[in-house]
Amino acid sequence: MQDSEAYACLLNVLAPECSAKPSAMSVKDLLRRARLVLEHADRMGCKRYLTPKDIVDGLPNLNLAFVAHIFQKRNGLSKQMKRVSFVDGLSDDAQVSREERSFRLWINSLGISIYINNVFEDLRNGWVLLEVIDKIAPGSVNRKMANRPPIKLPFKKVENCNQVLKIGKELKFSLVNIAGNDIVQGNKKLILAFLWQLMRYNILQLLKNLRFHSNGKEIADNDILVWANKKVKDSGKHQSRMESFKDRSLSSGTFFLDLLSGVEPRVVNWSLVTKGEKDEEKQMNASYIISVARKLGCSIFLLPEDILEVKQKMMLTLTASIMYWYLKRPTSHSLDSKNGCSCETSSTTTSDDSASESSFDDNAAR
User: Fold this and answer.
1) How many angstroms separate the CA atoms of 317 and 311, rounded?
2) Residue 148 per-residue DSSP state
3) Which of 20, 34, 274, 310 could pair covalently with 55 via S-S, beta carbons 3.0-4.6 A apart?
4) Alphabetically, which GO biological process terms does the record hold (predicted)?
5) What's the alpha-carbon Rg for the chain, to the nearest Å?
């Protein structure tokens, strides 16, 4: 903020008709540039809460008041904005940004020492990934071989990322055509594929820790699917069912609301639920699903759009999150007898988002 570049860009977007010459960006002197920014703000009707020196000095409270006033005066939002169907699909960059946000929320929820602002940038030194792995697979990281931040030498970062991939292979991740340097270079596709496998491993470990397996067979994606359908059926909703985690009928949101009601009958306010036939109704249901799941105590990181578009990975982890919350309640429950799966439980929350329906090797290769 101190060099006024962000202010100059913002005001040129919000009020281009109020710009004047010389432009703030063409001026190198910081005090003069800040003065031009404030003059621009004056012309669009914003009172001055600060002086050019306040901007250059980076005084937080005055800058906050200034930004708030700009937002109040002209925020660039419109009630008449064109409606875009979520199902139309997003650009590749938008899809990547959405997945990045989900993974960022998940990583920050793990309680690691470094707060993540952007996974593509903050994970490049390998240290954060090692911390994440140590959280979900304790004891797997060789800390003597790890390089702690700040890391200036590139090969030290590569060493960390190589250890990350080595552990990934030990955890049976699909790591075809990925090297430590790909993470250091910020390869988005490969980083997202690796993070998905970490998140999925975390979810399955949580369920495994509840002793949810039978005859040595650990829980699989199909077990989660069977459990969800059984809970909905047992609650009396015999017509509500999902065939797979990519079942297009899930976009209406009604199945997940039935599932949430099945695990806790009092949690859903049915007066707020729509039929889920139109896009607007589906979006309302999707937002309500996330709200109800979080109120229940599930750790949810997916977005309403993920439900509307029936993102396969997200559907799995949403279901697994609800299942994990249910199995940790202080009572014993059993799964479907056909699968011979049973579980015993104990106390509260958690799980994550993002998911696939069957083998995660397919997802890792995205």
Assistant:
1) 10
2) P
3) 34
4) actin filament bundle assembly; actin filament network formation
5) 25
Tokens of 307: 């439900």
Q: What are the tens digits of pLDDT across the range 72-120?
A: 888 776 544 444 344 344 445 666 777 888 888 889 878 888 888 899 9
Sign of torsion over alpha carbons 361, 124, 9, 61: positive
The Cα 84–Cα 93 span in angstroms is 17
> Are residues 11 and 42 in contact, defined by beta-carbon separation less than 8 angstroms?
no
pLDDT digits (tens, 9 = 90+) for 311-360: 898 899 899 889 988 988 765 444 443 443 434 333 333 333 333 333 33
What is the spatial distance between Cα 108 and Cα 311, in angstroms, rounded to a whole number?
22
Q: Which residues contact 174 (CB under 8 A, 6 or more apart)?
A: 197, 360, 361, 364, 365
Instruction: Judge contact between 200 and 102, C-beta under 8 A.
Output: no
pLDDT for the residue numbered 331: 53
The mean of the pLDDT values for the chain is 81
Contact 163, 143 (CB under 8 A): no
Helix, strand or coil, per DSSP, at residue 251: helix
Contact yes or no for 183/168 (Cβ under 8 A): no
Q: Which long-range contacts link 91-98 to residues 24+ away (Cβ below 8 Å)?
A: 96/188, 96/192, 98/303, 98/305, 98/306
Strand, coil or helix: 217: strand
**What span, in angstroms and rounded, lies between the C-alpha atoms of 361 and 366?**
9
Distance, in Å, from the CA atom of 125 to the CA atom of 183, rounded to the nearest integer, reads: 8
Q: What is the C-alpha end-to-end distance of the chain, expressed in Å?
A: 38
DSSP strand pairing (213-214 vs 333-334): unpaired
Helix (H, G, I), strand (E, B) or coil at 333: strand
pLDDT in tens, 242-284: 999 999 999 999 999 999 999 999 999 999 999 999 999 999 9
Cα–Cα distance, 98 to 304 (Å, whole number): 11
- The SS3 assignment for 126 reads coil
- At position 43, the amino acid (one-letter code) is R
Cα–chain center distance at 336 = 31
Q: How far is CA 359 from the centre of its chain?
A: 21
Contacts of 98 by beta carbon, 8 Å cutoff, 6+ apart: 90, 303, 305, 306
CA 240 from centre of chain: 27
